[in-house]
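User: My advisor, Dr. K., asked me to get a structural model of this assembly before our group meeting. I'm new to this, so sorry if the format is off. These are the inputs:
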Amino acid sequence: MHLKYESFVREPLINGDKTYAQVTEDICRPIEQKPGRLWYMGFVFSLLLLGFGVFSVFWEVYWGLGTWGINKTVGWGWDITNFVWWVGIGHAGTLISAILLLFRQGWRTGVNRAAEAMTIFAVMCAGQFPIFHMGRVWNAFYVLPLPNTRGALWPNFNSALLWDVFAISTYFTVSLLFWYSGLIPDFATVRDRAKTKLRKRLYGLASFGWTGTAKNWQRFESLSLVLAGLSTPLVLSVHTIVSFDFATSVIPGWHATIFPPYFVAGAVFSGFAMVQTLLILVRKIFRMEDYITLGHIEAMNKVIVLTGSIVGVAYLTELFTAWYSQVVYEQQAFKWRVLGPYWWSYWAMMTCNVVSPQFFWFKKLRRNVVFTFILSIVVNIGMWFERFVIIVTSLYRDYLPSSWTYYSPTWTEIGFYIGTFGLFFTCFFLFAKYFPVVAIAEIKFTLKTSGNNYKKKMEHLDEKSAEEFIHIAEHAH
Amino acid sequence: MAIKKFAVACYDDEAVLFPAVEKVRKSGYKLHDVYTPFPVHGLDVALGHKETDLHIAGFCYGIAGTATALGFMSWIFTKDWPINYGGKPFFALPAFIPITFELTVLFSAVGMVLTYCYLNQIMPGVKKHIFHPRQTDDYFVIAMEITDPSTETEIVDFLKTTGALETSVQAAEEGWWYGWWHKDEEYQKQLA
Amino acid sequence: MSQKQYWKGLEQLEQTPEHQQIVENEFQQDLPAMDLSDKLLNATTPRRDFLKFLGFSTLAATVAASCEMPVRKAIPYAIRPDAELLTPGVANYYASTFVDNGDYCSVLVKTRDGRPIMIEGNHSSSVTRGGTSARVVAATLSLYDKTRLRQPYDKKAGKSVDTFEKIDTPITQALAAANGEIYLVTGTIISPTTKEVINRFLSRYPNARHIQYDPVSYSGMLLANEASYGKKAMPSYHFDEAETIFSLGADFLGTWLSPVEFSSGYIKNRKINARDGKSVRMNKHYQVEAVMSMTGANADERATCKPSEFGNVAAALYAAVTSGTAPAFKSKKLNDLVTSAARDLKKGKGLVVCGSNDVNIQIIVNAINNAIGANGTTINWANTANYKQGVDSDMVRFVDALDAGQVGAVLFHNVNPAYDYFDSEKFRKALPKAGLSVSFNDRMDETTQLCAYAVPDHHWLESWGDAEPKAGYYSFIQPTIAPLFKTRAFQDSLLKWSGAEETYHELFNKYWISKLGGQSNFDKALQDGVVEPETVSFAGASFSGDVNAAIAKVSAAPSGDGKYELVVYETVAIGYGGAWSNNPWLQEMPDPITKATWDNYVCMSPKTAKEHFNAELTGINQVDTRKKVLKVTVNKKSVELPVVVVPGFHNDVIGIAAGYGRDAQVGRASVNGKNAYPLVTFNGQTFNYANPVSIEQTGALYQVAITQTHHSYEARPIIKEYTLKEFQENPRHLIEERKKELAHYTHLHWEGHHEEDPNADFDEKAFEKNGTLYPVHEKPGIHWGMSIDLNACTGCGACVVACQAENNVSVVGKHEVLKAQEMSWIRIDRYFSGNPDDPDSIQAVFQPVMCMHCDNAPCENVCPVSATNHSSEGLNQMAYNRCIGTKYCANNCPYKVRRFNWMDFNGADSFADNLYEDGLRDDINDDLTRMVLNPDVTVRSRGVMEKCSFCVQRLQEGKLAAKKEGIPLEDRHVSTACQRACAGDCITFGNVNDKESAIYKVRYEDNKERVFYMLESLHVLPNVSYLSKIRNTNEIVAGTENDQLYHQHI
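Assistant: The format is fine. Below is the predicted structure of the whole assembly, which you can bring to the meeting.
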């Protein structure tokens, strides 16, 4: 117990000779110094995108959904596509922080803070779409089971869309709690380093007056463990429920029992890709190569190739089921999906999601930052197309040929989507500037097991014989 | 809540901290608390803290959530306002499961965090005395309460023997309070 | 009126003079409607005030109508003879008559609080038999058309005139002083009293002449009949008597002569009662035509030929009928068709009709009818029809006279030569040469703009009148609302100008009271709307035409130089044009065949389009709304219009609809498209609507709003078709199919082996119970159900417009239709099958689709706020106020019948100034136009989902009626708007739980062999069932290897 030991063959998760003080210094630097030009440029750009999004939404709410391209047959278009896409992206954050915590994956420490932040912002973006795709958004509160003056008027608990309301809001709340409870000690660190009074006060407020007594830390660990335990089934349930929106319907191409696992895999897939995109930027901009190492990147690339292959299998299974069902509507639906007027979206999805990740079987590419960055974006494009394919190319040619139509978005829909990027990156830039982007306390915790310099100290142990090793281990200190 | 006097010792390595903690506990002086910048495994054992029951609380909250969700939905659809939706039965249990699960998680998480804050006495605006500014950075701090002013030097000397890098004597509010930081500094002034 | 007379007080009983006084002076101070007139006509009055007055005057008229005095005038249709005449909130029905030139329909007008809001068929008429057409139902909207003239107009003064006196004097003077002939140009007049009035006018002005002019002319027939039978008249055709019908390019179900009458007769013999089993019979309908008409789409056997070959086809048929010689056309199908048609026609009870306006062809047709003994059996000369009386040469002569400056004065009533005369250029130039020109038209249309005076006539819903569609069949027009504007009955104007003292109304009363013998008979007549002979007497006519000369002429006639021929046709929706061009309901009603809205276009066959203009009916064409624009030229006059590809068109024939491309002053809705009348020619005797044409590409593109872009039903089990033969051999075919398809769900295999009685019907109850894991909800009391007979549906679209009128369904405009955001609650799906390259192989089927009110409705489960859920009577109901518009329900509807309010289409939104404007449909939200809204139905706001409600407001009304009678609900209490509108009664509606109800009998007794439900296997348990389509032909193409449309997924 008292001897922190990790075999030398494992590569260090923290590079360079770091001490605790050094760690604190490195991670707090971006917070304490003025942000660079890159940051300002990025931030202003995000604000512009956000502004355009707000305008597009205003336009749609004022004039009506007729300003969108959706129609009598295709009732959901870019709106719900983007919703599912953003939710999916969110999932990697929870996954990294929660599931990897349960599996005691040391490498998560470098990335979990940023990933969780990403989760929260992504869910914020996702939430916009179900709200503003309503025809009468000013009555959106009807979905809440509120006692009201209209008599006993309750929502319909059978509706998958209502399940969504509960799932998404729960997911957002729990992620937020999980994230923030981890932030409290780090805020305390920033607070105690603060020079100016204002900083002291603000971070003092944010740190809830944390001092870090042994008992607090004990409860802290217990809390994060249980929250992790809750988040894990939660994150699975959320995308399962999102998939119910389609799986519980009667529309060929939607009505599929394979959806829950398939959606979850897809979520992890796109989520990790997004984490890659962001972290590669963060480690560049904030010079955090020592904490977000190639090791991290490679580990996540492995997850990507795995989940990418899973969704690939799912796509093929769908085709098989359609053929095997011998139901004309199913068969035709998939025929039109693959070969119909929307063929391009299907094949875009296939290339980006199934083919491209296969490159990660090569270690060289897995550890190539630039390639990873590009591919992470490709994957996210592919996952967007997956949702588009599921939603639009199922609806546009369903049971009655008389109602078959085609759908293309209008500028308001596209603007709405762009706007959520603005929202996302605005939040993320603020986070990167004012929050510790890496979990300081947790890094310190792993420093002595996986830190480069400490591992060196342990090097001699590896040469010792078993008996000697055990002896040393027992009589350490 | 009261202002008390504390003898404070700082260490920079848990390898030194652990034996120090053992000595302190044997010594019989009143140990106020130990502060670390990150969770040091085994410290709670070394200090003889018993395992926390936070997770049990979490479980109870969860059950509460389950009960609420199931009860509420069943009541609405069978008693309060039964409606025929697409020919489904009024009590359509399978359809209730997702929301039931979500509420279980929600109740459990929220309840636990609140309990956690309550037990740790942390909250926005809450202030506590910081014995050493680096205790959230790279110092491990042991604070001993000086119950009898006569023993002050004796305690400090004893702490020095445990391999402390720094030692000091501070008067501080032992609990938490609302307010700004300089308020704490005022205590110091009053004392001096 | 046989109703009890209650006397209020002894005065009335004793009829004291004082009381008399009071009664007479009941309305001492004139009604506001009258004394406001000056104000009304004051141009400076703000429109809103004007409309306030208007509303008030309407109401006042209503109130008046509820008191004694007007009662003497207008007699409400007797639903309950002892009812008060007007109870606010309770509708009154007045029998009246729809007359638009020759178009005739006997109707009931539903008025609510003095506003006509709905028009339904009048079953007491044996002519139209309670049927209606889209145009008839849409008439209420034309009444409230804001582009109607609101007062007389004096062109010289360049302003409106506030009293009729001010223009009566100059006009009468001008008439008196007219040097040269005075022409009264009207459409076909079928009103006896109007004829009377006109005669007075003619006798007053000896130099006056009356000519009748039909923009879509039938004078070819009139002349042919004159030549064949010595009467320049039309017989009445009895399609209900005919067992074999041969139509040579006559769209008798859609536009030809009297479509409502013919449809109801035609469908009578196509309804099949499956109980008759092997002995079921139906008429056989042969159609030879150049374009794909709605009638052709309903035909059993159909072949195409160029219009220039019509003569030869007629001749060939004549030869086949008389001498049995086989025809020798290039097209085999045509030969076979003519041969078998001749065989069937000779069996008797045959009827041949022809849409051509060529005298010789019509003579041959007469000869055929004579040869097969149609005269006296299916063609009745005892009651000649008056629908069309216009003779083209008269009109041409008139225009020449006009041009020569020989016309002293000309009066136009309900005609618009400046737009629809084939040589309108000449007419426009010539008209100013007339000393005096007056138009009675209802709006500043192309002709009225050129006239010196506009003296607007009433709308027929505002006026008194009568009609004699057939000799001896009378039908009456009652005003259902006080005149909205300062208009005057056309007849009153004529009477005034011919110096008569009495008004038209007095003349009308006198005429009929004397003719019918007594006030009470007259009242009864007004009440019923029609007076008809007790029995139909059939009479033939002796044929004396020179058929051989005719044959010689037609075979000598040039078969059309140039490859292509153009046919100018009427659409079922807006017909010849007139006021209909500005009727948004009709503009947005999808054309039965092309399913296009808001435009006219060049129709051509897929082959032609593909091979010569590379605009083919596949792939991107179904995605892209842009169509290639072609330039079409007929003797140096050309128009540029987009191509719309239609299977079934002869490969060398193109078609363009008339009635589009109107002047902006006709109304915003009417400006789309191009005027096709200039492409009509005059052959010295009659107008020619089919001419050789040259076509060139322009490279331009134009968007056409089409509501259905896929044309094959992909051989899916959503429509069931059988040939009559198949059906006779095994009537239970469909039942067996259903059993086979659903056996697995009906009899669960774990319940052990099920010994199925082969003669048992399909067990719907077992399927309902075993098809789900859930327990089944009981369905006690009323359970609404509807059955639609695919055999009876001709696709005419009357139901579509009726639904729109009844349920305040928004008109969305062309731009929204382009985005497939249209909102009609009931649509008619039109599917083609066959080989697109071979027009003769095309079979079409029409399927009306509205909300199926599924008992296991998928839409209900998914609504998060329970805005849609199931009523105890089986209705799938919408709570508009609760709807937040997630559109999830629409996505999850397998029938795609839910409609979303994409924009604020009708000012029902809480947002300021965000009313959607299309440019075409804007007038629909004018305060005046909104008077057409049905107060019983919520006007939905933006962002709300809506759909067919089975006319729930009518159901509630019916239930109340039954309750008041203290009896259980019966069929007669309830009807849906679409059901009432249908000329073929193809919709049956009622309470399925009532074993006496028609719907129960159709479904479970009389026609159970033909019943099927769309997408039954989904176990959504729809409450709308269909009756299979039976074709009296040898092969059903759909799904066979010949069905190229299916194999190519077009």
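One thing worth pointing out at the meeting: The first helix of chain A runs from residue 20 to 32.

User: Perfect, thanks a lot.
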